[in-house]
Amino acid sequence: MQRRTLLTAGGAAVVLGSSLTLTGSAWAQDAAPADAATTDAAPADAGMIPDMVIGAADAPVQMTEYASFTCPHCADFHATVWPQLKADYIDTGKVRFTYREVYFDRFGLWASMIARCGGEMRFFGITDLVYDTQRTWTASGDPATIAAELRKLGKTAGLTDAMLDECLNDAEMAQNLVTWFEANAEADDVTGTPSFLINGTKYSNMSYDEMKVILDEAAAG
């Protein structure tokens, strides 16, 4: 399970082309002093952030995943477990699945903003792209390069430059996302990723075979 310092609502980064705008001080150590501008952000409102959900509303099993787009273990889960989970349980009406982002760093937040830029209909498709190419878009460690790579993924998913500009420059949304994540993480005691809630019980990362046993028991009531 990935365990790192969680990003707090004291700071949120917004991509402005190849530069960054920072609010607050949480990412001060990551910002380039010559390129970063500090602005006042509106009060964050976690209630404005919708959950991203897939699956039948009346499914017997309610499942929530907490994951970070920059977490290698999360990428592995989405490569090895997610396809089977979706085919066997979500698509068959047994599981209603909610994906909630965890933010360890600004890059994960940017990826989240792009995934959400396409709305609920495109979210899970963009999520697949982000995880499938995680090693590629995170490889440089350079903020401008990572921002450009994430924009490419968004355009691959059908987002326009105008849509991406609007989403990635939305400082209020960035702040709201971090506040929303903080509230969720505190409420569900999330300390690492990936973490799962299955009908209210928390679990850490596991194989598909292990998850299948838990889901079958939960579905049986």
Classify the helix fraction into a percent range: 40-55%
As a percent range, the share of strand residues is 15-25%
Order of helices and strands: EEEEEHHEHHHHHHEEH
Low-confidence stretches: 16-42
Shape: globular
Mean pLDDT: 85
Lateral strand order in the biggest sheet: 4-6-5-7-8
**Total number of domains:** 1
CATH class: Alpha Beta
Organism: Loktanella fryxellensis
Domain Thioredoxin-like fold: 50-217
Pfam family, one: Thioredoxin_4
InterPro entries: Thioredoxin-like_fold, Thioredoxin-like_sf
Characterize this entry briefly.
With 221 residues, this protein is α/β, with parallel strands linked by helices. It has helices spanning 72-80, 82-90, 106-117, 119-132, 134-138, 143-156, 161-168, 171-187, 208-220; strands at residues 11-16, 19-24, 37-38, 52-54, 61-67, 95-101, 195-198, 201-204.
Describe this structure in words.
This is Protein-disulfide isomerase. Residues 50-217 form the Thioredoxin-like fold domain. By secondary structure, this protein is of the alpha/beta class. It has a single domain (49-220), classed as Glutaredoxin. The protein contains 9 helices and 8 strands. The protein has helices at residues 72-80, 82-90, 106-117, 119-132, 134-138, 143-156, 161-168, 171-187, 208-220; strands spanning 11-16, 19-24, 37-38, 52-54, 61-67, 95-101, 195-198, 201-204. The chain has a 5-stranded mixed β-sheet with strand order 4-6-5-7-8, sandwiched between helices. It has a 3-stranded mixed β-sheet with strand order 1-2-3. Helix 3 runs parallel beside helix 6. The longest helix is centred in the last third of the chain and has 17 residues, at 171-187. It starts with 10 loop residues before the first strand and ends with a helix. The model is unreliable at 16-42 (pLDDT under 50).
